[in-house]
Specification:
By secondary structure, the chain is an alpha/beta fold. The protein has three helices and five strands; from the N terminus they run βββααβαβ. β1 (2-7) and β2 (10-17) form a beta hairpin.
């Protein structure tokens, strides 16, 4: 089910599915909640978990403000906590991914 909250004056969209222990799904930059459904992950997870997937600010159906200051990591975390609060979740398992392009940095 698609829902949304208002956080910091912005609409934050998210999707939920299933029952069980809360599982928060987070995508990296340029992806949104639907990515988890499109990739086929939620079909299996929804049977044992209560899946909560967030469209981060600037992605999917969430608002897309132009001010770069709105995208500070601690503010994005506040948006995600707002979603968990709206869903009455105190603790959740977290699964995330990030698309990385190029060679990772090497240590000296």
């Amino acid at each position: 089910m698609r829902s949304s909250i208002t956080s910091r004056g912005h609409r934050i969209s998210y999707r939920t599915e299933g029952d069980g222990a809360p599982l928060l799904l987070l995508c990296g930059w340029s992806r949104w909640a639907d990515t988890w459904w499109d990739a086929g992950y939620v079909g299996g997870l929804g049977e044992g978990y209560r899946v909560i997937a967030v469209d981060r600010l600037g992605h999917g159906e969430s608002d897309k403000p132009h001010d770069p200051a709105e995208y500070l990591e601690q503010l994005i975390v506040a948006d995600i906590v707002g979603v968990l609060d709206a869903e009455r979740v105190d603790r959740a398992l977290v699964w995330g991914f990030r698309w990385v392009r190029g060679t990772p940095p090497r240590s000296p």
